[in-house]
TrEMBL record:
Transmembrane segments: none annotated. GO terms for biological process: mitochondrial translation. InterPro entries: CHCH, Cys_alpha_HP_mot_SF, Ribosomal_mS37_met. This is Coiled-coil-helix-coiled-coil-helix domain containing 1. It comes from the Eukaryota. Keywords: Disulfide bond. It comes from Cyprinus carpio carpio. Residues 63-97 form the CHCH domain. One of its GO terms (molecular function) is RNA binding. GO terms for cellular component: mitochondrial ribosome; nucleoplasm. Signal peptide: none annotated.
Length: 131
């Protein structure tokens, strides 16, 4: 099906206008021109005294090539560790380097684990009364 240029422009113009219309309505609801703002918070705007304990995202898999070389060696030598000792040591050194790199990165990131943040928030809670 062939769409003419005018029909194409009208369709995309409507899509573009609908986004700006929504933004204008939200701005109108939030503005103080008509007295009090229409949108009022149900709860007081304050942080909670606890953080949700979520699991951290796991990073990329490291040492995959070393692991595949180790498994190939094991397969060729009937899972004999003595024959594949070189590959085992290379894999363990790679894992150790990756763990050290992850620890160094975590220390410099400046992010707290949820458990650490919760202990700090228990020690220094938010003031519950409004000022």
């Amino acid at each position: 099906m062939f769409i003419t240029g005018a029909v194409y422009i009208r369709r995309h113009y409507r899509k573009a206008m609908s986004g700006s219309v929504i933004q204008e309505k939200v701005a109108k609801l939030l503005s103080r021109q008509s007295g009090k703002p229409v949108l009022r918070p149900i709860k007081p705007l304050a942080l909670k005294n606890e953080v949700a304990s979520r699991k951290l995202k796991k990073g990329e898999a490291t040492c995959v090539t070393e692991m595949s070389l180790l498994m190939a060696c094991w397969k060729q030598n009937d899972f004999n560790n003595t024959v594949c000792s070189k590959e085992v040591s290379v894999f363990y050194t790679c894992v150790e380097k990756a763990q050290n790199k992850a620890k160094a990165k975590q220390g410099t990131q400046g992010r707290l684990l949820p458990k650490e943040a919760n202990t700090l928030l228990k020690r220094f809670p938010n003031q519950s009364s409004e000022i």
